[in-house]
Amino acid sequence: MKKVLVMHGPNLNLLGEREPGIYGTDTFESINNEITAKANDLGFECEVFQSNSEGALIDKLHAARLDCAGVVLNAGAYTHYSYAIRDAIAAIKIPVIEVHISNVHSRDEFRNNSVISPVCAGVIAGFGKNSYSLGLIALKDIIEGE
Questions:
Q1: Domain range enclosing 129
Q2: Domain CATH number, residue 46
Q3: pTM of the prediction?
Q4: Which of 110, 129, 116, 105 is nearest to 6 (CA)?
Q5: CA distance 89 to 91
Q6: Which of 23, 38, 51, 79 has the most CB atoms around it within 10 Å of its CB?
Q7: Are the C-beta atoms of 31 and 132 separated by less than 8 Å?
Q8: What does the alpha-carbon distance between residue 57 and residue 79 come to, in Å, rounded to a whole number?
Q9: What is the pLDDT of residues 46-98, one digit of tens each?
Q10: Is-catalytic flag, 23?
Q11: Which is the catalytic residue, given 23, 78, 105, 132?
Q12: Measured between alpha carbons, how far apart are the two ends of the chain, in Å?
């Protein structure tokens, strides 16, 4: 069974509490349970990781290159300005799907720019917690060459 990594960036540990009008009322734990179940349904072993620290996210991306077939990443606000995360994605040579719970293009203007998109295999945004499931489906297609 191939392993995938699902990563949550800053403030996503507060899902269910943080701005429920934007991010929904499902808790971080319940969303992670759904992510793991979907990954298992797709035939993946799934590791879920969250950090508010840019360095920890980079370290986890580096480690993923050794034992994961791909990554689904919600980099949170780092999406818009972290060239360090962008470079880490480019360096690991496994597919990374960028996901966002909200439609970032319908929000603040600064959220319209992603510095990580050019090095990601694809972007999924605006489908709430289902963005993660859609990211896993896309990752499966990429890994299986479809």
A1: 2-143
A2: 3.40.50.9100
A3: 0.93
A4: 129
A5: 5
A6: 79
A7: yes
A8: 12
A9: 999 999 999 999 999 999 999 999 999 999 999 999 999 999 999 999 999 99
A10: yes
A11: 23
A12: 18
